[in-house]
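In this supplementary section we document a worked example of the pipeline. Step one takes a protein sequence of length 200 as its only input; no multiple sequence alignment statistics are reported here. Step two produces a three-dimensional model, which step three serialises into structure tokens for compact storage. The input and output of this example are shown verbatim.
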Amino acid sequence: AALLFGLPPRNLSKMVARYSRDPKNVAKSCKARGADLRVHFKNTREAAAAIKGLSLNRAKTYLNHVLAHKEIVPFRRFNYGCSRKSQCHNFKMCTQGRWPEKSVKYLLELLRNAEANAVTKGLDQALLHITHVQVQRAQKQRRRTYRAHGRINPYMSSPCHIEMILEEKEQEVPKSRKAGKNPKPGKAAKAPKENAPKAQ
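The serialised model returned by step three reads:
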């Protein structure tokens, strides 16, 4: 269609979604991402940092507990004006937290998307762990609010981009115990030096 109107063809490689990092093993990993999501960047960043490193099942349980106010999201960076909560005692070096429901719902949807991608690739969902999650600021969306004396002020929103990578965690195989103890690796025995004949 571009050639019919005399326009140069578009480079489709630029339209492919790119992630900030690649998984170690592509065959044993799955991805999910969302762009320009209408949810606060700061709250989503703190909620995403709380689930990094968790297993898929534990992350879903934790986020559902946050919605029910059974667990809390610790606010470590963007915590200005955030009050102290007693539930934060479960975390080290943190006393401030909140229950950002909208951010949690978006993260749950991304986890559901990643889980569906894992099923498509035939991965074991019980072994999936969140190895990478990143939240970036998106372009602000503009609205207006009306003030006194006929003035108009900007009323901006702060959307964000979210991406996450889940990988299968390798199972640790117990080391087999042999009947006899292996000798400790030591220094190789040096060959005895032959006494050279003394010069007369």
